[in-house]
Design a protein that fits this description.
This protein is mostly helical. Helices cover about 60% and strands about 0% of the residues. The protein has 2 domains: about 160 residues, no CATH class; about 35 residues, no CATH class. The radius of gyration is 38 Å and the shape is elongated.
Length: about 250
């Protein structure tokens, strides 16, 4: 590049910089009055103890690096806190499943009891003689005792439709009462057992998952033969050093 060309380029650059600076000052953008928001440190409020933090992590229903940091803090993804939270999530799911099963069994038992009362107080030879409320009870019971029907319950409408549905059943609906009660009683027992198992799993969360115990060191009796330092983990070496410092003169 010739000297004249370099001089022209320098003059253009200087004038452009001056023009840009003047425009910026007119807009109020200069060192004297430029304002900006400085980043502010935000403290993450966590639960006061480790057990409460693990329970909080389990309430989220999933474990990720983000949720782990916000609820527990800086711990490894294979730490005892993570294993405890995972067991707590499983126990919670077991409890919810058992609760839903118990609620369904209780509701089915009410329907079965109503159908039994109807069977004991009605003449069942002809469905046409049953009232609309009685037909509803019988139809509802059928979908509890034998839910695998070729039609959905909502499609059975009107007295004629209900009578036709009940008349086409083989065996008759009242012949299924004893079997339905046995099945429902078994479901109640199974739901109760599942709830016991869920509560046991919930109680065992912090029994099966605890912080690793530091190496047992007797002050004054530590020798190279007694403690295999070479095969210790870094955490065990630090714990050993701390115990030795505490036991010093």
């Amino acid at each position: 590049m010739a000297l004249e060309q370099r001089y022209d380029w320098f003059n253009w650059w200087r004038s452009h910089r001056l023009s840009t600076s003047l425009q910026s000052r007119k807009l109020g953008m200069n060192v004297g009055n430029f304002t900006a928001t400085a980043p502010v440190h935000t403290h993450i409020a966590r639960e006061p103890d480790t057990v409460a933090r693990v329970r909080k992590l389990a309430e989220t229903g999933h474990i990720s690096t983000g949720s782990l940091w916000h609820t527990v803090g800086a711990v490894a993804v294979n730490s005892w806190q993570v294993f405890a939270a995972q067991d707590a999530i499983i126990a919670k799911a077991m409890k919810e499943t058992a609760t839903d099963a118990a609620a369904k069994a209780a509701a089915d038992l009410v329907v079965i009891t109503e159908a039994e009362n109807l069977a004991n107080s009605s003449t069942l030879s002809d469905s046409n003689n049953m009232s609309d409320a009685q037909l509803n009870t019988a139809v509802k019971f059928i979908f509890v005792a034998k839910p695998e029907q070729p039609v959905v319950r909502s499609s059975i409408k009107g007295k004629a439709g209900k009578v036709a549905f009940l008349s086409g059943l083989t065996p008759a609906w009242h012949c299924l009462l004893a079997e339905a009660r046995l099945t429902c009683t078994a479901a109640v027992t199974a739901a109760s057992t599942a709830m016991d198992e869920a509560e046991a799993a919930e109680a065992a969360v912090f029994i099966n998952n605890q912080p690793p115990a530091p190496p047992s060191v007797v002050p004054g009796a530590v020798t190279a033969d007694a403690v295999d330092v070479q095969n210790m983990s870094e955490a065990e070496r630090r714990a050993l050093l701390a115990r030795l410092v505490d036991a010093g003169p």
